[in-house]
Structure formats: structure tokens, C-alpha cells
Design brief:
Layout lengths: L10 H51 L6 E6 L7 E8 L8 E12 L2 E12 L1 H6 L1
Amino acid sequence: MHPSNEHGFTLVEILVTLTILAAVLPALLQVFSSATRNQALSDNQTTALYLIKFRMAEIELDGYPEIGEETGEFGDNSRYQWHSIVEDIQSEEVQGVRRIQVAVSWQHLGRERSMSMYTFVADKQKQQEQ
């Protein structure tokens, strides 16, 4: 008879490997799932930032904006909504300056998220008079 020289795994080795995989696999799946959710949120925030800049540019193209608030959506069936506020800056040192604030909101995983930004616009007519 020849001595057995078979190479392979024993039942105990296979069971130990399966036990380790059963303990580690759920944690790895949770890490990947969390990374996917965070990537989606980051993509939404980047889109919201570009939409804020777009809306601000639209307001600034009209020249010196009227005081007030407006709300709308970015196209039909868009999940992003915007809200803008234009107000006078009350200051004795500075005349003819308005503050424009634009906020963009959207739904992410059942929760409302939002981002906002503001800028200042001067009345060019008043600036030239001074």
C-alpha cells in the first residue's frame, strides 16, 4: 500500500472558513451599502450646488433684482426645488445693495435635504452716481 498523499481540505477547515465568512460578510456588506448611500448623497449635493449657481446666475442676469421671494422647480418632474429671497441690505455706509439667497431642496432616502448660498448685488445706477 502507498501512503495517502492527497491534498485537500478537511471538513474542519471548511467549517472554520465558513464560520469566519459568516461573521465577516455582513460587516463588509454594510460598509459597501453605506458607501453607496454616501456616494448618492454626495452626487445630490454636487447637483444642488450647480443648480444654486444656475439660479443665482438667472437672477443676476436680470440686473438689479426686485425685492421678494420666489419658489419653483428645475424643469418638469424635477426632484429639486428652489427658493430665492431678495432683500435690501440695511446699512448707512452702503446704499443700493441687495442680498440674494437661493436654497435648493430635494428628497434623499425619505428625508428632505437642502443647501443654500447667498451673494450680494449692487445697483450699478447708484454706484455710477456716487
